[in-house]
Amino acid sequence: MQEYTSVEDQVLYGLDKINKDRKVEISLHDLVFVVKTIEELNRFFHQPMHYPSLDDVVKYMGNVNTGAYSLIYRMQYKMLWDYLPEDIKNQMGWETEELVNPNPPYYFQSKD
């Protein structure tokens, strides 16, 4: 039987294998972009009255070209990925999946 995990378990999986003293340098511009994006996501999602319907969430999230998803996509694929050391990228699926939870998140479960 397939096991599914929480959102938290997906993010936290394998992080204990990374030395907390290891550092990377990030440009102030990119860091501020990340902070402002997370701040905006929090501003929307912390208050359920901002999204009384699924349509409100869909409109807010947008797509790869507009809305919140465009910011998330930009952070992930155009910015933060480039800061990761090669060995960490490799552990996130390029060569191994040491930092990838082997169990899918709960939202992969069939809704039937």
Report on the architecture of this protein.
α2 runs antiparallel to α4 (67-79). The chain has 2 domains: 1-24 and 91-104, no CATH class; 26-83. 48% of the residues lie in helices and 0% in strands. It is globular. The protein contains 5 helices and no strands. The chain is mostly helical and 112 residues long. The chain has helices at residues 7-12, 28-45, 54-61, 67-79, 86-94. The mean pLDDT is 95.
Continuous helix count: 5
| Count of DSSP strands | 0
Give me the strand/helix succession: HHHHH
* Shape label: globular
Overall helicity: 40-55%
In whole angstroms, how far apart are the ends? 16 Å
Structural class: mainly alpha
Pick out the low-confidence regions: none
What is the radius of gyration? 17 Å
Fraction in beta strands:
under 5%
Overall mean confidence score, pLDDT: 95
Biggest pleated sheet: none
Number of structurally distinct domains = 2
Write the layout of secondary structure elements.
Blueprint: H1 7-12, H2 28-45, H3 54-61, H4 67-79, H5 86-94
